[in-house]
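Appendix C: a fully annotated inverse folding record. The material below is reproduced so that readers can follow the format used throughout the book. The structure is listed first as tokens, followed by the designed sequence.
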């Protein structure tokens, strides 16, 4: 568990920074929060899925858990968390204005990272015992 958590934090911070920077660039380029957030999260999620599936949540037998089942579970989790993220970031933008958008985005994604870790460990990359 300690190894998984350490790798998840390293890859999660990397993924968060990619998402955050891409989001800010897209908003600066003129996209709305409702368009920029799903786009930036999708870009970062591809990287996160590959890193976490091949390294973080690797089985004790060393096997990677990158397969159709884990991918479909990842997509379901991604859609749910992206909807939550987009609604929360947009609400934050409406409430605090775009001046605080970078901080709102970081706080929302940081909070969702905890939920994401637990869901990925327990459900997305679950190990089947034969």
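Designed amino acids, in order:
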């Amino acid at each position: 568990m300690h190894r998984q958590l350490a790798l998840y934090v390293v890859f999660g911070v990397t993924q968060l920074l990619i998402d955050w920077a891409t989001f800010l660039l897209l908003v600066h380029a003129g996209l709305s929060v409702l368009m920029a957030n799903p786009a930036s999260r999708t870009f970062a999620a591809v990287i996160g899925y590959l890193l976490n599936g091949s390294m973080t949540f690797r089985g004790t037998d060393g096997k990677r858990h990158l397969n159709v089942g884990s991918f479909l579970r990842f997509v379901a989790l991604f859609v749910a968390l992206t909807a939550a993220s987009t609604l929360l970031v947009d609400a934050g933008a409406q409430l605090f204005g775009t001046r605080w958008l970078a901080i709102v985005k970081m706080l929302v994604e940081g909070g969702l990272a905890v939920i994401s870790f637990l869901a990925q460990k327990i459900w997305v990359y679950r190990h089947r015992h034969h």
